[in-house]
Amino acid sequence: MLRLDYCRSLCCILLMCGFAAAQNVDLKGKVQLTRNGRHVGDASRVVVWLTPLGATAAPSTPRQQAAQIPQLVQKDKSFHPSLLVIPAGGKVEFPNHDPFFHNVFSLFDGKRFDLGLYESGSTQFVQFDKPGISYIFCNIHPQMSAVVIALNTPYYAISNWRGEINIGGVMPGRYQIHVFHPSVAPDALQAVEREITVTSGDTFLGNISLAESNLEVAHKNKYGRDYDRPDPDSPAYARP
Q1: What is the domain partition of the chain in residue ranges?
Q2: Mean pLDDT score of the chain, rounded to an integer?
Q3: Fold exhibited by the domain 62-152
Q4: Strand pairing report for 194-198 and 164-170
Q5: What's the sign of the alpha-carbon dihedral 108, 114, 119, 124?
Q6: What does the pLDDT read at residue 1?
Q7: Which pLDDT does position 217 carry in this prediction?
Q8: Which residues of 71-88 are buried (b: 16+ CB within 10 A; e: fewer)?
Q9: Cα–Cα distance between 113 and 223 in angstroms, integer?
Q10: Which residues of the chain have pLDDT under 50?
């Protein structure tokens, strides 16, 4: 009798777990980028994420493990990659693989920091302790830029070159859709935000159309001034 009761309890637990898992929804969507009214062939690097609204339970975000710390490598006077999405509270490593100095900083919305001058072969770490979008620059090389997006939700996706996105394991509820692309103006990104209600039968998130801007993110150096012309005798450009 005891064994029968145990089996019944186990079956109930398994059924409840299976029912809960069945509620999770994999949402697929499509992003289309245009420039000057024409379709852009590469629709990658569009970030789409969901934040809960109202009584919808906030999803738990896995904590970043030490082996999962991503890198923004400085190489050939560029950041590689130029876009990262991490959990809020996570870290990013900034190794310098160029044969000269860099000075990575961010003084805009998101995480504010200044790593100062550091030489070839050295590295620095930054913890992005709150959700936000951080624009990353170098105080020496104005052409260098990257974006780090720290999220407090696991419900996000980055589009591939075809513009396809897939956000897996979303629990039913009300959500706000947020969208980001480094070449789209902030007001255009805000215009495509909307509220959605996810049900157990949903599979399609919808189509998102974005128009790329001809304007780059305007920025000055970390002192709020225009960048100086490169000085070949400066230690910032000298090989260490």
Answers
A1: 25-59+154-215, 62-152
A2: 87
A3: Immunoglobulin-like (2.60.40)
A4: unpaired
A5: negative
A6: 46
A7: 60
A8: bbbbeeebbeeebbbbbb
A9: 13
A10: 1-4, 6-7, 9-21, 239-240
Q: 70-95, pLDDT tens digit by residue?
A: 999 999 999 999 999 999 999 999 99
CA–CA dist 138, 102 (Å, integer): 6
Rounded distance, CA 34 to CA 40, Å?
5
Fold of 25-59+154-215: Immunoglobulin-like (2.60.40)
14: left (phi over 0), alpha (psi -120 to 50) or beta: alpha
pLDDT value of position 201:
86
Q: Which two tokens mark 1?
A: 């009798």
One-letter amino acid of 156: Y
| Residue 99: both structure tokens together | 């044969």
DSSP string of the chain, one letter each residue: -HHHHHHHHHHHHHHHHHHHHHH-EEEEEEEEEEETTEE-S-----EEEEEE-TTPPPPPPPPPPGGG--B-EEETTEEESSEEEEETT-EEEEEB-SSS-B-EEE-SSS--EE---B-TT-EEEEE--SSEEEEEEESS-TT-EEEEEEES-S-EEE--TT-EEEEEEEPSEEEEEEEE-TTS-HHHHHHT-EEEEE-TT--EEEEEEEE--S-------TTSSPPPPP-TTSTTTS--
Candidates 157, 154, 158, 159; CA nearest to 171 is 154
